[in-house]
Amino acid sequence: MSLALAETTPASSIALDIEGVTHRYDLDGRDLAVLDDVSLSLAPGEFVALLGPSGCGKSTLLRLAAGLETPTTGRVREDGRPIAAPDPDRILVFQDATLFPWRTVRANIATGLEARGLIREREYRIDEVLKLVKLEGFADFYPHQLSGGMAQRAALARALVNDPKLLLLDEPFGKLDSLTRLKMQNELLDLWKNAGFTALLVTHDVEEALLLADRVIVLSDRPAAIVAEVRVGQPHPRRRDDPDLVALRRSLLEKLGISHDV
């Protein structure tokens, strides 16, 4: 049974424009360059994946898109408007579920609505997203009672209850076992297709990027610059043994500096 979003509204996605972004951190007086003149545009409803070496700046790019940080130079815009602060329309999902251990699954999902003062009028959405991520029977469980996959489903539900127009995903399945990861990839894909939000995914898994994304962006070592862009033309659902995807996988690995197939 695939994830399917009920009551999807037409205006369910946004355009994201990252324009000439360079970003640096000051670490005890030492200048650390993280991003180097990165420009990237996502159309409303597009699914884009970011690949690159560990520590190259992929997660920083997500934080800038979420409004958690401001670029040193350059601009980040949604639908033409500058992004200057976090907003419920832009939700960042991390590799760790980061659930509050003292709150039940239902209470964790409710946090965003509570913070926005919408819990009374939109409490019904909690039950909708619980069903959506197949946790309706676990609403009163605490995080320590959940498997890794279930905890990540709860984290996704906590994001989805806000009906985001841009979902920023920082290796959301990186700590799951291989079978759970494959299942969650399929469910995320179904969710995106039905909800229509724009998605930007950071992953180290080349196959995951090719199975999910419309485009795959390859970043260099830090400070990250875009070194390649691959458009994936195959329709969904995609097969891992599709010869075209196998060829794209080999090409992406080469662009990442891995000359032999793994």
Describe the structure.
There is one protein chain. The chain is of the alpha/beta class and 262 residues long. It has nine helices and ten strands. The protein has helices spanning 58-66, 105-109, 111-115, 119-122, 124-132, 148-160, 178-195, 206-212, 243-255; strands at 16-27, 30-42, 47-51, 73-78, 81-82, 90-93, 166-170, 198-202, 215-219, 226-231. Strands 6-7-8-3-9-10 form a six-stranded mixed beta sheet, with helices on both faces. It has a four-stranded antiparallel beta sheet with strand order 2-1-4-5. Helix 7 links the parallel strand 7 (166-170) and strand 8 (198-202). The radius of gyration is 18 Å and the shape is globular. The two termini are 32 Å apart.
Question: Which features would summarize this protein structure in a list?
Answer:
single chain; about 260 residues; alpha/beta; Rossmann fold; 2 domains; 6-stranded mixed beta sheet; 4-stranded antiparallel beta sheet; 10 strands; about 30% helix; globular; disordered N terminus
